[in-house]
Write a structure and sequence with these properties.
The structure is a single chain. The protein is α/β, with parallel strands linked by helices. Helices cover about 40% and strands about 20% of the residues. The protein is built from 13 helices and 11 strands. It has helices spanning about 1-15, 25-30, 50-55, 55-60, 65-80, 85-95, 110-115, 160-165, 190, 195-200, 215-225, 240-245, 255-270; strands spanning about 15-20, 40-45, 45-50, 100-105, 120-125, 125-135, 145, 175-180, 205-210, 230-235, 250-255. Strand 4 (about 100-105), helix 7 and strand 5 form a beta-alpha-beta unit. Helix 1 (about 1-15) packs across helix 13, helix 6 packs parallel to helix 13 (about 255-270) and helix 10 packs parallel to helix 11. The chain is elongated and about 55 Å long. The model has no long low-confidence stretch (mean pLDDT about 95). Bound molecules: 2'-O-acetyl adenosine-5-diphosphoribose. 2'-O-acetyl adenosine-5-diphosphoribose (OAD) binds near residues 37 and 238.
């Protein structure tokens, strides 16, 4: 840990962006199951689905209300969860380095926002489970899922009354969750693709936390930051491919994010 703290301090002393890239592990201690953990499975009819099968445009096209049911269940899990010490520490870092810090998150749970991370410094590259948008892309705007839409329990059907609320406010057609699905691509207007790439190319320090390195844009962020000469640090309870890169850079911390992030942030801000 000491060598990681020293690497972070040295990187902050250089010019350049300070970035954090977070994944589901950062919310694990808030009680939100990680994507690839065992709790992620979902049953529809007689069949058990893995999130990677349900979080697809193909699944939504074939069974929109089953997919919506899964998301309204997950939305409830996220709403009942509270930000943990890692979210709070990253919000403190944003306030401490207002001109330099940006948070890139794969998490759709909204916990960074609820911990106080400013919208202007937070880039949700996989969407936000509290938002919906037109399923036919009549506009790219996102809309809050109406308050009257209830959170569902596991396996609940989406009622007719709820279905009527899940419509695009502009064209009246079907709305969909504002999340990036596995068979879809990143873009700038919805998922900050160009912004995040630019930020990575300006990085002096990249803190990677709680991600298993399975998705494309996080790989681009780590690669571009590395090319820019950034110090890369990996915080995770397990080894992962980003840890291999960090080991040759700023180092790895193998501990829960909520336990170590406050110490790392404190070291970075105590200059
Ligand atoms: P995963 O569920 O794939 O990985 C979670 C990571 O967090 C693993 O590497 C765990 O070892 C680590 N972890 C678990 N508990 C932790 C803790 N307390 N502290 C630190 N690390 C911990 O989640 P992601 O990498 O976020 O995308 O998944 C990436 C994306 O794939 C998700 O955003 C989602 C998904 O399927 C889309 O929906 C497009």
């Amino acid at each position: 840990m000491e060598h990681v703290l020293a690497a972070c301090r040295a990187a902050v002393a250089r010019p350049g962006r300070v970035l954090a890239l977070t994944g589901a592990g950062v919310s694990a201690e808030s009680g939100i199951p990680t994507f690839r953990g065992k709790e992620g499975y979902w049953t529809i009819g007689a069949r058990e689905y893995h999130p990677q099968e349900l979080a697809t445009h193909e699944a939504f096209a074939a069974m929109p209300w089953s997919v919506w049911g899964w998301y309204l269940y997950r939305r409830g899990v996220c709403r009942r969860a509270a930000p943990n010490a890692a979210h709070l520490a990253l919000a403190q870092l944003a306030r401490g380095l207002p001109e330099r810090f940006a948070l890139i998150t794969q998490n759709v749970d909204g916990l960074h926002r609820r911990a106080g991370s400013p919208d202007a410094q937070t880039f949700a590259i996989h969407g936000d489970i509290s938002l919906m948008r037109c399923a036919n892309d009549c506009v790219l705007d996102r809309f809050p899922i109406p308050e009257a839409v209830p959170d569902l329990a596991r396996g609940d059907e989406v009622s007719a009354a709820t279905r009527a609320l899940l419509e695009c406010p502009r064209c009246g057609g079907l709305a969909r969750p504002h999340v990036l699905w596995f068979d879809e691509s990143y873009d700038e207007p919805r998922f900050h693709l160009d912004t995040v790439r630019r930020l990575a190319g300006e990085a002096a320090l990249l803190l990677v936390a709680g991600t298993s390195a399975q998705t494309n844009l996080p790989w681009q962020v780590v690669t571009l930051a590395g090319r820019a000469g950034a110090t890369i640090v990996d915080i995770n309870v397990e080894d992962n491919p980003f840890g291999d890169i960090a080991a040759a850079s700023g180092g790895c911390v193998r501990a829960p994010a909520a336990t170590v992030m406050p110490t790392i942030v404190e070291a970075m801000l105590a200059r």
